[in-house]
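User: Small ask, check this?
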Amino acid sequence: MVKIAFICTGNSARSQIAEGYAKHLARLYDLEVEIYSAGSKPAPSVNPLAVKVMAEDGIDISSHHPKSLEEIPFSELDLVITLCGDAKETCPYVPSQRREHWGLPDPAKAEGTEEEKLAVFRQVRDEIKAKVEDLFRRLKEEVLNSRSEDKAVV
């Protein structure tokens, strides 16, 4: 089983969106994974606009809550993906066998009307969805390759 964590600063938007997509896609790709998200400075709650844009895509993250790094089994993680975007943010260091960095802007910092903010959230959501889909295609390929190698050894 592969253990993956999505890490950002507040764990209120980007990493929650990534966790939601990862859990959803794990079922679709039939992958045995454990998915976590956390932040170095967790917000009090998940951003309601993150909940809204995920619901638009049929994924319910309304029961999610921001978690600190201490609340996830970071010593057991196989892959850590950091989602911090700009230089002002402090992306935490979390040890793992593998790491990836997806530099994405924080939609929670969007300004303007609610519709303008939603447009930013949708753009970031769509970028995260594409990245998670790519990640799961790669993971599925790794699983299939390791199975074919196992059969070749026998």
Notes: The chain has one domain: 2-153. The first helix runs from residue 14 to 29. DSSP finds three helices and four strands in the chain. The domain at 2-153 is CATH 3.40.50.2300 (Rossmann fold).
